[in-house]
Amino acid sequence: MATYINLDTPIVETVVKTYTKFLIKNVTVNINSSATIIVLLYPIEGDIISRIIEMDGDDYAKWGSDDNYLIQFIKQKLV
């Protein structure tokens, strides 16, 4: 049985990951209102993470049927 010993001062480790691409996993549309977009971010190495992005108001109205608008919107929100 392992015995864990508390540190007097916690060690804080900061990890920086570089994500180079994303995948649109799912888009849920609320007609005439908004969209919820789930994207997967892929790092150079390490674990894939997901993000939820909300689109509503003028952004949703501008989307229309232009998927390139959606891609550019996601890129802006991820920065």
List keywords for this structure.
alpha+beta; elongated; 79 residues; 3-stranded antiparallel β-sheet; 24% helix
Structural summary, described in words:
The structure is a single chain. The protein is α+β, with helices and mostly antiparallel strands and 79 residues long. It has one domain. It is 24% helix and 38% strand. The protein has 2 helices and 3 strands. It has helices spanning 57-63, 67-78; strands at residues 19-30, 34-43, 49-56. The chain has a 3-stranded antiparallel beta sheet.
For the record, give the distance between the C-alpha atoms at the N and C termini, rounded to a whole number.
45 Å
Given the helix and strand composition, which structural class is it? alpha+beta
Largest sheet, spatial ordering of strands: 1-2-3
Taking all Cα atoms into account, the compactness measure Rg is 19 Å
Helix coverage percent: 10-25%
Mind sketching the topology for me?
Elements lengths: L18 E12 L3 E10 L5 E8 H7 L3 H12 L1
Antiparallel strand pairs: 1-2, 2-3
